[in-house]
Amino acid sequence: MNSSEIIDRESFDQNNNYFILSEYLGHHKEENKLVLRLVEGRIILEFLSSDIVRVVMSKRDNQVDLSSTPAIIKHDLSYNNFTIEDKAEKLELRTDSLKILINKTKFFLSFYDLEGNLIHQDYSDHSLGWSGDEVRAWKELGAKERFYGLGEKTGYLDKRGRKYTMWNTDTFNPHVPSTDPLYQSIPFLIGFNQGRNYGIYFDNSYKTHFDLGLNSEKYYSFWSEGGKLDYYFINGTGIKDIIKNYTDLTGRMPLPPKWSLGYHQSRYSYHPEEEVKEIAKQFRKKDIPCDVIHLDIHYMDKYKVFTWDEQKFPQPKQMLNDLAEDGFKVVTIIDPGVKKDPRYDLYQEGIKGDYFCKYLDGEYYIGKVWPGECLLPDFTKAEVRRWWGDKHQLLLDKGVKGIWNDMNEPAIFNDSSTMDIEVVHDNDGDLGTHRRFHNLYGLLEGQATYEGLKRYNPNERPFVLTRAGFSGIQRYSAVWTGDNRSFWIHLEMAIPMLMNMGLSGISFCGTDVGGFSDNSDGELLTRWTQLGMFMPFFRNHCAINNINQEPWAFGEDYEKVIRKYIKLRYRFLLHLYNLFYESYQSGLPVMRPLILEYPDDEQTYNLSDQFMVGDSILVAPVYQPDRSERMVYLPEGEWYDFWTGNSYDGGKNIIAKAPLETMPIFIKAGSILPLAPSMNYVDEEQIEELELNIYLSTDVREDNYRLYEDDGISFAYQQGKYNVRDFSYLYEGGKLEFRIYNLIDNHQLDYNNYLIKFKNLALEPNVVMIDGIKSDDWEYNNCDLKISVGVNVSKIEIR
Ligand code: GLC
């Protein structure tokens, strides 16, 4: 509906009559749980650690259901050590890091640290309630509280003041600030009150809503249209710690194949075979690095998944083999809809095996998607996930290297854009309607795909890309943000969207570079490629019927700049890979809002047009046309312009030069940054000498950097087959000491040498000692000292 009538339909009812859990009747402890009985319901506080408390409610005196959605994978957390003190009006609970007060006269929870500072509390007037199928929590809203997370949402970094819905939706309309929901549902929120932060993960897969201060200045609330009220209160020493705790519960991104960090080129659709080969040829001819080509729906025979159009792609194996010789990996799209065609073996198998979604009376759900009438696999069944996963063998046998899961909200061409909510999913016997499983559909398809790829090739890391997902999707898949447009405002919107996805556990994310639909232009594509080179997932993709937007599409002037930035991506690749490893270990994002690194600096709290890559690189993309400079906020400390080497004092805004060929990039003083030579594709050649850039500053006496490296493709890293080297320096008393420690040494390095570049050396060097022996083999020029040493060297001294 596109007329004004929609305004009436969208009006939002706040006045439901809720049964509020208020009057306390009693409590008892059961191992790591506190069971509370109240007049209108029961509540269990389940302690998972001293920082993580799960709150689950049941209606009236129903048993509290402690099952979880598949987002939660950490089931062995349990903390029994909490104490309970029963006071006249309150129960006082203590863990090793929290004090929790439970108000008895009118139920509400308050969370304090052990010094007695309030971290967060429920809204004291009404805190938990239910009405029919709806369950809801109300929370006190701090006067200056900010909100982050919620995954893939439009708008600025701080999510306060708006209402958001979680219901995976194929939204082709232009994504504007009011466009909500989009494809992903990540009901994880970070509440930030300077110094007092917490996370809330609402583990409910039904359609859920978060009103973050739109309808009240006193409280915010979240609720669901079904299922149970089941949330995790997550404490932590700061936002980083909260993300670690959240990703401990919902899982982290395993390391993807290193090539998937390279540049990807896509189009709806490259076909026939000759066009694919031509695109690949152009990349090599024009000296523009590229690792991956994506094949969109036209590679298939009548959009039937796991088939090839034999006219257009007569010899897929040969084609993929030829491309592989040139370093190209091919990713093919897979949609969940299976064409209803009795001649089609996948359809036959699905019917015979009882693999498709049905109504309760056994009638199949049939929806229209690209191939026409389709049936949809019921991914809630383990058997179906296995079947689907194994089907990928057909593609992998031909040489396909990764799978792109699209239309998996699931998207259907009808008024609701999705499957009928009355469809009943099997869920291995624990049946439920599509209301419950809709938001999980993409996650479970992701699981099926990831596991299928891994079964096929147990020692090769799968690459899966998805549009839809739920909390936990990071375990299986990279995520791209769907059908954006070639509009400047969509370039701008990408930055806070990706930053919040990163804060929500999804590190491997990106937007379609250049914009998917509508027509791009040279300047827009150039600026978007500049941003893209620091997006964790870097793919240029473009819709059918729009003008071409390959890097060379708009003439040589743009091509030159685009080439420069794609090459730069490869220069930064080792560092990016290092950050992926950090993310695998801790859940921390690669692309970070500044608040993550500077939580005491108010300027960062809603800074939506700059980001950090790890903790040392600050990036300020240009997202408006005709700009040759832009304002950049530099937080405290000293910063180096990556391009000119000029240094700036932080704690202020500066105007940075940003002509078309320059995206402002700043390196934090003290940082150590490895840069690799650019290549046509990842690991094309051995690195002969690893360049280490040390951004010295007299203000930073010492710093260190840990570099992680492995084979980039296998799972051997999970058995400890990797290297970690620690580079550190100490800069004092007219002397600089640089040390290299091989902390873990279980993987054969490519290179034999380091080229170390000490930048901005304040002392004029007289003597350079390498492992105690004087060396003359160094170059000093204008405060920069360059020296090449073997990888076994452990100490360099400069005096
Ligand atoms: C959807 C996807 C888009 C893809 C198209 C055709 O719109 O979001 O990326 O190109 O379908 O498969």
From TrEMBL:
The UniProt GO MF terms for this protein read: carbohydrate binding; hydrolase activity, hydrolyzing O-glycosyl compounds
Q: Where is the Glycoside hydrolase family 31 TIM barrel domain?
A: 254-579
Q: Which UniProt keywords apply?
A: Glycosidase, Hydrolase
Q: Name one GO biological process term.
A: carbohydrate metabolic process
Report whether Thylakoid shows up as a keyword of the record: no
**Which InterPro entries does the record match to this protein?**
DUF5110, Gal_mutarotase_sf_dom, GH, Glyco_hydro_31_AS, Glyco_hydro_31_C, Glyco_hydro_31_N_dom, Glyco_hydro_31_TIM, Glyco_hydro_b
Domain named Glycosyl hydrolase family 31 C-terminal is located at: 587-673
- Where do the Glycoside hydrolase family 31 N-terminal domain residues begin and end? 43-211
Domain named DUF5110 is located at 689-745
What protein family does this chain belong to? Belongs to the glycosyl hydrolase 31 family.
Q: What is the protein name stated in its UniProt record?
A: Alpha-glucosidase
